[in-house]
Write a sequence for this structure.
């Protein structure tokens, strides 16, 4: 049923306006509007999207008008009068519940004047189709560009904190896990992971970084020969203890997987193994959360 607001319009004019809205549906304009407004909602902080919206919707209306007039030949005058009648309704304080998504009060008078002038023109080609497509294309290009920039400017640590470090000894097995308590160490929970292995087995760096310590004197004697590395992949330090020999020196830059030393039994131990700790903000953290074990 046609709303009372349109009682002053002829039946023919109402049919033409209804045809206009149905043509929007056939042209899949609702999908284009959804996609464009999705871009606007995602990048609400970018005023360019809002500025382009009026050009996009105006071009859509003009293209739809041209398609309607191709379906109703020799009715340009009636169609122009229907648009003029619509303009009068928009300029009155009437209930606007009968208006559609495409023809709404936000469209100012100037677009109606352009539409009426174009409807009365000698030809009704979709001359604004390229404008509509360019606006939509520009929106999606901006979407891609902003997504790329956002990804490129993320804090590197945010991207790498979830990257697992390498197991320092491939064939080793865990003889004592993090937070374990046993009689040998007393009541204090274990602050790292012990990898049981044979003497002389190569130890590889779990993370890339810079060697801070590679000796047996800088830390507590219980650690024996130790290597401490400032990780480049996160804001942690890696500590490797009880080594038999070193393959690195303090100040050296090493890559993940490089051989840094060999398994030993130096310090306070019950047998050859590698003790590894991860230190974050001066606190020991569970290596199980950061190593690919």
């Amino acid at each position: 049923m046609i709303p009372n607001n349109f009682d002053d319009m002829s039946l023919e004019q109402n049919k033409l306006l209804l045809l206009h809205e149905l043509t929007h549906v056939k042209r899949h304009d609702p999908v284009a509007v959804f996609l464009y407004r999705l871009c606007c909602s995602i990048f609400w902080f970018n005023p360019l999207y809002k500025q382009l919206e009026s050009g996009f919707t105006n071009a859509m209306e003009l293209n739809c008008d041209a398609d309607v007039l191709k379906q109703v030949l020799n009715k340009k005058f009636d169609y122009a009068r229907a648009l003029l009648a619509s303009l009068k309704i928009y300029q009155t304080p009437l209930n606007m519940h009968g208006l559609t998504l495409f023809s709404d009060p936000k469209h100012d008078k100037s677009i109606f004047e352009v539409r009426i002038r174009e409807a009365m023109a000698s030809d009704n080609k979709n001359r604004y189709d390229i404008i509509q497509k360019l606006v939509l294309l520009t929106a999606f290009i901006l979407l891609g560009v902003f997504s790329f920039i956002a990804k490129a400017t993320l804090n590197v640590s945010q991207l790498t904190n979830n990257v697992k470090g390498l197991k320092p000894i491939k064939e080793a097995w865990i003889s004592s896990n993090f937070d374990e308590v046993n009689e040998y160490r007393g009541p204090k929970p274990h602050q790292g992971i012990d990898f049981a292995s044979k003497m002389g087995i190569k130890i590889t760096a779990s993370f890339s970084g810079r060697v801070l310590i590679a000796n047996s004197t800088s830390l507590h004697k219980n650690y024996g020969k130790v290597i401490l590395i400032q990780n480049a992949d996160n804001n942690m330090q890696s500590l490797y203890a009880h080594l038999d020999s070193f393959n690195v020196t303090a100040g050296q830059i090493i890559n993940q997987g490089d051989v840094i030393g060999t398994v030993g039994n130096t310090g306070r131990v019950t047998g050859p193994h590698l003790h590894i700790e991860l230190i974050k903000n001066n606190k020991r953290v569970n290596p199980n959360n950061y190593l690919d074990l």
Q: What stands out?
A: Residues 1-6, 93-106, 154-161 have pLDDT under 50 and may be disordered.
